[in-house]
Amino acid sequence: MDQLMAGSWSLLPLGWRVITKINQVIREEMNAIDSQEMLMPLLHPRAIWGETGRWGSAKESPLGAKEVMYQFKDMHGKEFALSFTHEEIVMDLLRKNITSYKDLPVSVYHFSTKFRNELRAKSGILRGREFLMKDAYSAHASEADLMKYYEKMKQAYVKVFTRLGFEVKVTEADGGVFTKNHTHEFQVLSPVGEDTIYYCDHCDWGENKEIFEGKAGDKCPKCKKGKVVEGKSIEVGNIFPLGTWYAEQMGMCFTDKDGKKKPAWFGSYGIGPTRVMGTLVEVFHDKKGIIWPKIVAPYQVHLIQISNDQFSIFKKAAEIYNQLIKAGVEVLWDDREDVSAGVKFSDADLIGIPVRLVVSEKTGDKIEYKERDKDKVELLSLDELLCRVKN
What we know:
The protein is α+β, with helices and mostly antiparallel strands. The protein folds into 2 domains: about 1-285, BirA Bifunctional Protein, domain 2; about 300-390, Anticodon-binding domain (Rossmann fold, 3-Layer(aba) Sandwich), CATH 3.40.50.800. About 30% of the residues lie in helices and about 30% in strands. The strands form 6 sheets. Strands 3, 7, 8, 9, 10, 11, 12, 13 and 16 form a 9-stranded mixed β-sheet that branches. The chain has a 5-stranded mixed β-sheet with strand order 20-19-21-22-23, with helices on both faces. Strands 4-6-5 form a 3-stranded antiparallel β-sheet. Strand 14 (about 255) and strand 15 form a beta hairpin. Helix 1 packs antiparallel against helix 4. The longest helix is centred in the middle third of the chain and has 21 residues, at about 145-165. The radius of gyration is 25 Å and the shape is elongated. The chain starts with a strand and ends with a helix. The relative contact order is 0.12.
């Protein structure tokens, strides 16, 4: 990563590879619950935000969002905002295309940039003014159908975070500028987290500090067996049951089985891939650097070539590299000249790729094999290595 300014970051090649893998995990779980991928604009006209009152400030409207939106005028004096979310945009799409209960339910998602006017952009990529978001939206003919899908989305999110290696806590929270209803956040325990959550040490109950009225050590309000534990955490996702409010404000109605016009029930669901990447680093690291979970590592193998201008070492490293690529293994090959072995090892630990391979005069016809999260070093033949890394 490279910082352009407070709250704005460039994702460099290794970081972008991590993000694409995080996105793929999310994409697979969204597709599994029949949500369809699309892409929506980032530049929004004032009129569409005015329909729900979110163009205004919190003082002017219950869900006013002016304080967090980037608003401006073009050369013609027309007013626009940069996307901080897409509820209104999706609702506009729905009212153009949904007429009957037969058209419902609908679930769509996209990966796009969001812009939020953070008062204090801090904690690196964990809280930015510009960041990547996977946001999904669903519309339904009834509250029961919305809540059924809401639970399905909740479980899909748990699958996403479990696959990424997190132990995620699902907590109830305030709806903020999205809804007056309680929502659910997906929190990962970390001492650097900005949130404080309370959770049960026995069951799956949890609440954000904003709505919890008890204290640590209390009996769990759900199971009555466990104790309430307080912890610092990082929010990596959230889901919102928005009800019919947005549809009512924007005239998104459908005809039901009895021929009556009714507003659609609406849900919104978000995961921040860049925030997820930052959280992975906070959770999976040691004093030497990052320890990427295999599923999101930028490469699976880090191949280090150590030689004093000996062509035979380069030739052997090239053979290993080509064989690994042929076997479908992603390899980062460090063939830098005039760089010491110590610097190469230090860089490998810092980058955090799961497996480090070393080829040098000392390894002879073998290859040094070491996993990033272990101290054990082994010497393997090429056949043994191929068998090991493919499993």
